[in-house]
Design brief:
The protein has 239 residues and is an alpha/beta fold. The chain has 2 domains: 5-62 and 199-233, Urease, subunit C, domain 1; 65-185, no CATH class. The protein is 18% helix and 29% strand. The chain contains 5 helices and 14 strands. The longest helix is centred in the middle third of the chain and has 16 residues, at 78-93.
């Protein structure tokens, strides 16, 4: 078995696993939708003529983001509601949110590059959707708070920027709040971490560290997006 996709020269690979392991100057190999290997050893054994190889020199790789509190607008007619939901999902997908969780069964959908799951589970971890008055308890979950707040936010990065720069929340805690924490809280065993056998939902961030990623706002900080082992952003593949 060979890799169908391999990302090499990763400055920092954030696994978000139980040990919060970070691989430096690493690679990650995927066979179709699954992760088959990662680390800083020689990846040549996974490569053949059919392997698509991407270079992430100067960039970091993280699990794709998960928003655990996606709601639908209840005050709209069905046609308007579904159009607004589709527009919101597209905007969130372009900001690296490839999995969402909603309590509304009508929101459930599985598309090629994004999925909305439904769950009635009330999370035990606090869900942060804005700037809290009190000190944040760790671990926590981060959410755009779609249709549960008066404002619209289609990315978790601006809130993460404020929490990191102005409230002193650690970059690692923020990343886990967008990846492994919601995966663990809602029983998404294939998502939220980088481990062998897990689903290949990945983001290549245009920064060498998550500290640098969370310390900037106002530009597209995601260089590549990969869902189930398929790169869909940018649409034109660049090696």
């Amino acid at each position: 078995m060979k890799a169908t996709l391999l990302i090499k020269n990763i400055e920092n690979l954030y696994t978000c696993n139980q040990k919060n392991r970070i691989e430096h100057h690493a690679f990650i190999a995927l066979h179709h939708d699954k992760i088959i290997d990662f680390g800083h050893h020689d990846p040549k054994k996974w490569i053949d003529d059919a392997t698509r190889v991407l270079d992430a020199r100067g960039e970091c790789v993280v699990p794709a983001f998960i928003d655990c509190h996606f709601n639908s607008p209840l005050d709209e007619l069905d046609g308007d509601r579904m159009r607004k939901v589709s527009d919101a999902l597209y905007a969130m997908r372009m900001n690296g949110i490839l999995t969402l969780i909603s309590k509304d069964p009508s929101m459930r959908r599985k598309e090629l590059f994004q999925e909305v799951l439904t769950s009635r589970h009330n999370p035990r971890m606090p869900v942060i959707q804005g700037i809290p008055d009190e000190k944040i308890r760790i671990p926590f979950l981060l959410s755009c708070g779609m249709n549960s707040l008066p404002h619209k936010m289609y990315s978790m990065q601006p809130l993460a920027f404020v929490l990191y720069v102005y409230r002193g929340v650690g970059a690692s805690d923020l990343l886990r709040a967008m990846t492994c924490n919601p995966a663990w809280e809602f029983g998404l065993r294939d998502l939220g971490v980088i481990e062998k056998g897990r689903q290949g939902d990945l983001l290549v961030l245009g920064a060498p560290t998550i500290e640098e990623y969370f310390s900037q706002v106002g530009k597209q900080g995601i260089h590549r997006m990969i869902k189930s082992g398929i790169q869909f952003y940018p649409e034109i593949l660049r090696c």
